[in-house]
Amino acid sequence: MTPAPTDANPVRIEVRGISKRFGDVTAVDDITFNAEPGRVTGFLGPNGAGKSTTLRILLGLSRPDSGAALLGGVRYRDLRMPARTVGAVLDIAGAHPAMTARAHLGVSAALAGIDDHRVDEVAAITGITGFLDRRIRGFSTGMQQRLAIANALLGDPRVLVLDEPSNGLDPAGIAWLRSFLRSFASGGGTVLLSSHVLSELEQCIDDLALIDGGRLVWAGPLAGFVAENGTLEGAFLHATRHSEPHTPALERTS
């Protein structure tokens, strides 16, 4: 068995030929790409393209019909301490509104076997120190987003998997997020980032994996993808033929 990655080791994300059907609908079909340590990889596609299904398979929330999604050569369910390998933000609605941010982070830390001193550390990183003792029901969408990112960082992971992490952030927050992700990658971390804000994503990512209709359209360096179209948006629209209205394929979350 491949040993689980340690904190000191870089961790590559490998998506190897995953396919998943829901009844008669194929959500993803033979998807293969890597996200490398030290780089930020954008994971793009129109609504209903299969992004959520792929991320859920990677994080052990859904099983593929075929293929595998690996973190440092290991399936998520086989990681000894998942929170120390990968931090994820798929949904900011998971925090109970009646809890304080400190309590929410404290419970997450305890469940993951992480010392509660880490709560103050991740609060400082994400800029929510002054809000730790406030109830989450009073948080703006942007503050909930920062809390979700803080929660993902509790285990000091080597990998971040983020779905629309800039939603609700103000311009200063977006600039902070961009800088943080670049710094995380520069330190040897691996980032897989899904977003529809292509102009912002273009300033942040090194590589991309693009899917449409459940199939891989492109995987490789960003520069190569945009070379003929000048911008990420132009290349995206060309590759997905989005000059016409798109009818998304059915994509479920279970």
Walkthrough of the structure:
The protein has 254 residues and is of the alpha/beta class. The chain has a single domain (13-240), classed as 3-Layer(aba) Sandwich (Rossmann fold), CATH 3.40.50.300. Helix content is 31%, strand content 23%. It is built from nine helices and nine strands. The strands form two sheets. The protein has a six-stranded mixed β-sheet with strand order 5-6-7-3-8-9, sandwiched between helices. Helix 4 (117-126) crosses helix 5 (141-153). It is globular and about 50 Å long. The model is unreliable at 1-7 and 243-254 (pLDDT under 50).
Name some characteristics of this structure.
single chain; 254 residues; alpha/beta; Rossmann fold; 3-stranded antiparallel sheet; 9 helices; globular; disordered C terminus
CATH superfamily: P-loop containing nucleotide triphosphate hydrolases
- The average pLDDT value, as a whole number, equals 90
Helix percentage: 25-40%
> What is the number of helical segments per DSSP (H or I, 4+ residues)?
9
Summarize the helices and strands and which ones pair or pack.
Elements: E1 13-22, E2 25-35, E3 40-44, H1 51-58, E4 66-71, H2 82-85, E5 86-89, H3 101-111, H4 117-126, H5 141-153, E6 159-163, H6 171-186, E7 190-194, H7 198-201, E8 207-212, E9 215-221, H8 222-226, H9 232-240
Helix pairs in contact: 4-5
What's a quick, concise take on this entry?
The chain has 254 residues and is of the alpha/beta class. Helices cover 31% and strands 23% of the residues.
